[in-house]
Design a protein that fits this description.
Blueprint (H helix, E strand, L loop, with lengths): L2 H4 L11 H7 L2 H18 L2 E2 L4 H22 L6 H21 L3 E2 L21 E4 L2 E4 L4 E5 L7 E7 L5 E5 L2 E11 L5 E9 L3 E9 L2 E8 L2 E8 L12 E10 L2 E4 L1 H7 L1
Parallel strand pairs: 3-10
Antiparallel strand pairs: 1-2, 3-4, 5-6, 6-8, 7-8, 8-9, 9-10, 11-12, 12-13, 13-14
């Protein structure tokens, strides 16, 4: 890897700055950092159609832009997980757009995961999810039904994006992971971690009421969910600011929380 690409890496074996420790200790941020690094490296190591002055200027500007983003945008977030998630998401979008529109570049060996979750083969927006012991069928990412017989109020279940969905394997099966929200006539908005499989069915796990989703990722055999919550003694009127991260396994057609993650979330 060349010197330009090395500037993007974070060594989680020995992070030196607080912001590096935050990224290394948050699975979703680690995944976003890896994705941004992939795009950055991909463009720097792409094969140019013409190795001319314009291409060298492009490389130089890419390095300068990357350093500016790290200092002025990423590092300005400090340890705030929500800010870092947004900064990385926008940076990935910018890098991806630059890779697509910059003429004269052709990638020789882009890693398979570069395409990320943008084009999943599983139609997670048109799937049947098991939510609180009932089947809910989403059409174009949403489901509506009367809150009660003869009621004009609607219970609405929908896919929540952003944060973007994640693609991977759980329990040996190809899966898409996403947040779902459910709201009705009351004041609450309940959020679920959900996974859909290629048979058009999925399952869910209730995360909490009026939280702020930050990220969802499939990391090895784990579904990793991060979000902002409140302290136990805080009322629902207080905006969520407390970062949480929880890990789930897929077992017996259900999402099962890892015991150590369940204890840490309390």
């Amino acid at each position: 890897m060349n010197a330009f690409a090395q500037a993007m890496d974070i060594d989680c074996a020995k992070p030196h700055q607080q912001i590096e420790r935050t990224i290394c200790n948050t699975a979703v941020l680690r995944a976003l950092d890896a994705r941004a690094s992939t795009y950055y490296t991909m463009m720097l190591e792409a094969k140019p159609a013409a190795d001319d002055q314009a291409y060298h200027e492009f490389r130089d500007s890419l390095q300068a832009d990357q350093q500016k983003w790290q200092q002025d945008t990423r590092d300005a977030c400090g340890p705030q997980v929500s800010c870092l998630t947004e900064a990385y998401t926008h940076r990935i979008d910018d890098l991806r757009a630059s890779a697509l529109v910059h003429l004269g570049l052709s990638v020789t060996a882009a890693p398979a995961h570069v395409a990320g979750p943008s084009q999943p083969s599983i139609d997670y927006k048109n799937a049947i999810y098991r939510i609180d012991d009932k089947d809910v069928t989403l059409l174009e990412g949403q489901h509506e039904q009367p809150a009660a017989p003869d009621s004009s109020e609607q219970d609405v279940t929908r896919v929540v994006e952003p944060p973007v969905h994640a693609v991977g394997k759980l329990g040996g099966r190809s899966a898409v992971a996403v947040f779902l929200s459910e709201e009705g006539g009351g004041s609450g908005t309940f959020y679920y971690a959900a996974v859909a499989f290629n048979d058009g069915r999925g399952t869910t796990f209730k995360i909490g009421d009026r939280i702020q989703p930050i990220g969802i990722a499939i990391n090895g055999d784990d579904l990793v969910v991060s979000y902002l919550d409140r302290n136990p003694d805080e009322p629902m009127a207080v905006p969520p600011t407390v970062p949480r991260e929880r890990h789930f396994a897929y077992m017996n057609e259900q999402l099962v929380e890892r015991p150590q993650a369940a204890a840490a979330a309390k």
